[in-house]
Design brief:
alpha/beta, 7-stranded mixed sheet, RNA-binding
RNA sequence: UGGGGCGUCGCCAAGCGGCCAAGGCAGCGGGUUUUGAUCCCGCCAUUCGGAGGUUCGAGUCCUCCCGCCCCAGCCA
C-alpha cells in the first residue's frame, strides 16, 4: 500500500510468484478454529491475510477450521464472524468451513490407504506416544503399520460407522518413524470422536486432524499462500507430503510468520478461556481483555487496531511488542475522532458568589479544538458548579509550576468559560472541604483576563443544575507484570486495580444521550465510551487515559 | 551428543557486500497551547549475540561458538 514501506518477506514472495507467473491471482485465508473469541493476535493475522489479498488484487477467504467438535461451537462461529466484520474486512465468497469438505477429505483418506500411505493403527494414545520415540531417539513402527490395505479399509469404514470406541483406532499416515521431524513419524490423520458436530451433526464418528485437513482445505479453495504462525514451521514437510501424495486440485504453499505478543496481557485462547471461566473477568468481552469483543466494548476502534497491526513487522522473529505501542495507536485515532466533553469524576461543589443565583448562561463549546468541522455544543453555566476534588487545593504554598489548578486565593480558568478566583471554602464537621466559594472575573469568556490576573491553568467543570449522574469505570492493564506467564501461574500476576468503578460522577448534560460505543474524550481525563452493555444506565468505560507527562514525571493528580 | 527457527538502540524493526546503520514506540530537552492533551523542533546504536576468516570493502559471505523460541496431543 505505502510505497515507502519496505516489503516484508511474504510480500516479496508474492511479488516473485506473481511476476514469475507461478500464480496469476493470489488467494489467502483466515482460518480460525471456533473454540474461543478472536484477540488482538488474530487481528494481526486478519490484517495480514485480508491486506495482502487487497493489495495484490486477490481474494481472502474466511474459513473455520472446525475439525474438533469437542471444543467448538456455533457461539464462537458467530462471535468470530461479527469480529471480522467489525474490523472492517469482507471475505471473498461465502463463509467456509472445513466441515464442508469432510466428504472429500474422507475420500482422499481412502486414496492414501489404497496407495499404502496410510493405515489404521490400533495402538492406544499412550502406546502411540511410546512408539513415537523421543526428540533424540527414533520411533518404532507400529505393529499395524504393514497390515493389508483391505484390512485398513474395512477398519476405517468401521471407525466411520461408529462401530469403534474412541481411542482404540486411528488412521495414520505411513511416512517415517525415524524422521528427526516428529511430525513425520506416522502422524494421526483421523481419530474416532463419537460426538456431534455443530454443523455436520451426528453424520460423522471420525474427524480429520488439523495436519491432515488444513492443506487439503487450502488446495480445495485454491489458496495460493497459506500463512500461519511460526510453530507450524515443523509441520510444513507434512503439509507438503500430503499435497504431494493426494490428487488435490491446486498446490498451496505454507509460509510462517511470527505471531504478535504484547506485554502486560495474554494472547492465548487457553489462558483467555481460563480467565473467563474462573470469573477473573466479566466475560469474553470484558474491556480489560485483548479480545476484539473486549477492545470494542472498551472503545478501541477498528481503525486503531488496523493501524497498529499495519505498523507491526511481518517477519520470522517472535518478539514482544510493548503495550505502549498499541496504546499510541489507540490515542492517535481517538484524538482525531473523539468529540470532547466535560465530566467530573470526583465532584466537589463550587459556588460562584458573584453570579446571580438564578441566572443561567448558555455557553457554546467546540467539540474539538483542532477540528471545527465537528461542530459545537451548548452548555448551561450557572452559579452552582462541580469541579474535580483533585483540581482544588487549600495549600497556598503550592507553586504555579507544580500545581496548575485551583488554589485558595488564586485564579484558574474554567475550560471554555470564565476565569475564577477561589475565595473561601465550606467544611463539614469533619473538616473536609465540601464546597468552594469563588468569584468570577467578568469579561473573561473567550478573552484574556486583565493584566495582573494570571490563571494557574485550566480545569474542567460541570453545571450542577443540568449535570447528569453517571458511573465511570476506569480500566487499567489486566496484569501488573510485563510477562504474566513468567513466574508460573499467570493469574498470580493479575493487576488488582485493573478496574476502578466511580459512582456519582457528574457529566455535562449532552452526555445523557451518549451513543453506546461512540468515542468521547472527557477533557483532561481520557477517552471514554458509553458501555453498550449497561442498558439505560449511564455508564462510561474509559478506553485509555490521556498521555500524562506530568504524572509520569512524578507529578500528582 | 534430534529436528526446525531466530539473534541490529529499553521495545518493535529496515538493511538482500560499497555514501556518516532507516523508521515507529518509549525516553529526554525546548517551543506553541483556554485539555499538565494535541501539535512543532531537537537529542537518543563509531555499532549490528561472540570470536575468527574471505574481501580493496561485511550487519550483509564462510567457519566455529553462545543465547533464545518451537516440536515427543487421537489440540489447532
Amino acid at each position: 500500500m505505502d510505497s515507502e514501506k519496505p516489503r516484508n518477506f511474504i510480500q516479496q514472495i508474492i511479488e516473485r510468484d506473481l511476476s514469475a507467473g507461478v500464480v496469476t491471482q493470489i488467494v489467502t485465508r483466515f482460518p480460525p478454529e471456533p473454540n474461543g473469541y478472536l484477540h488482538i493476535g488474530h487481528a494481526k493475522s486478519i490484517c495480514l491475510n485480508f491486506g495482502l489479498a487487497e493489495q495484490y488484487g486477490g481474494a481472502c477467504h474466511l474459513r473455520f477450521d472446525d475439525t474438533n467438535p469437542e471444543a467448538e461451537s456455533e457461539e464462537f462461529v458467530n462471535a468470530i464472524i461479527e469480529d471480522v466484520r467489525w474490523l472492517g474486512f469482507a471475505w471473498h465468497g461465502p463463509v467456509r468451513y472445513a466441515s464442508d469438505y469432510f466428504e472429500q477429505l474422507h475420500a482422499w483418506a481412502l486414496h492414501l490407504i489404497e496407495a499404502g500411505k496410510a493405515y489404521v493403527c490400533e495402538l492406544t494414545a499412550e502406546q502411540i506416544r511410546d512408539y513415537r520415540g523421543t526428540l533424540t531417539e527414533p520411533g518404532r513402527p507400529s505393529p499395524y503399520r504393514d497390515r493389508p490395505v483391505a484390512e485398513s479399509l474395512a477398519l476405517f469404514e468401521a471407525m466411520r460407522a461408529g462401530e469403534v470406541e474412541e481411542g482404540c483406532m486411528a488412521l495414520r499416515a505411513r511416512i517415517d518413524m525415524a524422521s528427526p521431524n516428529i511430525n513425520l513419524r506416522d502422524p494421526v490423520l483421523y481419530r474416532v470422536k463419537r460426538v456431534a458436530h455443530h454443523r455436520s451433526g451426528t453424520r460423522w464418528n471420525i474427524y480429520p486432524s488439523y495436519d491432515y485437513a488444513h492443506g487439503q482445505e487450502d488446495a480445495i479453495e485454491g489458496v495460493t499462500h497459506s500463512i500461519c504462525t511460526l510453530e507450524f514451521e515443523d509441520h510444513r514437510p507434512l503439509y507438503d507430503w500430503l499435497i504431494d501424495n493426494l490428487p488435490v486440485p491446486s498446490r498451496p504453499r505454507q509460509y510462517e510468520f511470527g505471531r504478535l505478543n504484547l506485554n502486560y496481557t495474554v494472547t492465548s485462547k487457553r489462558k483467555l478461556r481460563q480467565l473467563v471461566a474462573e470469573g477473573d473477568v466479566d466475560g469474553w468481552d470484558d474491556p480489560r481483555l485483548p479480545t476484539l469483543a473486549g477492545l470494542r466494548r472498551r472503545g478501541v476502534s477498528p481503525a486503531a487496531i488496523r493501524a497498529f497491526c499495519d505498523s507491526l513487522a511481518v517477519a520470522k522473529t517472535d518478539g514482544v511488542v510493548d503495550m505502549a505501542q498499541f496504546e499510541h495507536f489507540i490515542r492517535a485515532d481517538l484524538n482525531e475522532s473523539a468529540p470532547r466533553a466535560l465530566c467530573v469524576l470526583r465532584p466537589l461543589r463550587l459556588r460562584l458568589t458573584n453570579w446571580p443565583a438564578a441566572e443561567i448562561q448558555t455557553l457554546r463549546l467546540p467539540n474539538h479544538p483542532q477540528r471545527p468541522q465537528l461542530g459545537e455544543r451548548e452548555l448551561a453555566f450557572g452559579a452552582a458548579l462541580y469541579i474535580d476534588r483533585d483540581d482544588f487545593s487549600t495549600d497556598t504554598s503550592l507553586s504555579r509550576k507544580r500545581f496548575k489548578r485551583l488554589v485558595l486565593g488564586d485564579w484558574v480558568r474554567l475550560r471554555g468559560a470564565y476565569v475564577i478566583r477561589a475565595e473561601d471554602v465550606v467544611r463539614d464537621a469533619a473538616g473536609e472541604v465540601v464546597e468552594v466559594l469563588a468569584r468570577i472575573e467578568p469579561d473573561t469568556l473567550g478573552a484574556d483576563p486583565p493584566a495582573g490576573i494570571r490563571p494557574r491553568g485550566v480545569i474542567h467543570w460541570v453545571d450542577a443544575g443540568t449535570a447528569v449522574d453517571c458511573e465511570v469505570r476506569l480500566y487499567d492493564r489486566l496484569f501488573a507484570e510485563p510477562d504474566p506467564e513468567a513466574a508460573g501461574d499467570f493469574r498470580q500476576a493479575l493487576n488488582p486495580e485493573s478496574l476502578q468503578v466511580r459512582q456519582g460522577c457528574k457529566a455535562e448534560s449532552t452526555l445523557a444521550g451518549a451513543v453506546p460505543g461512540a468515542a468521547l474524550q472527557f477533557e483532561r481525563e481520557g477517552y471514554f465510551c458509553r458501555d453498550p452493555r449497561a442498558g439505560e444506565r449511564l455508564v462510561f468505560n474509559r478506553t485509555i487515559a490521556l498521555r500524562d507527562t506530568w504524572a509520569r514525571q512524578g507529578g500528582e493528580g
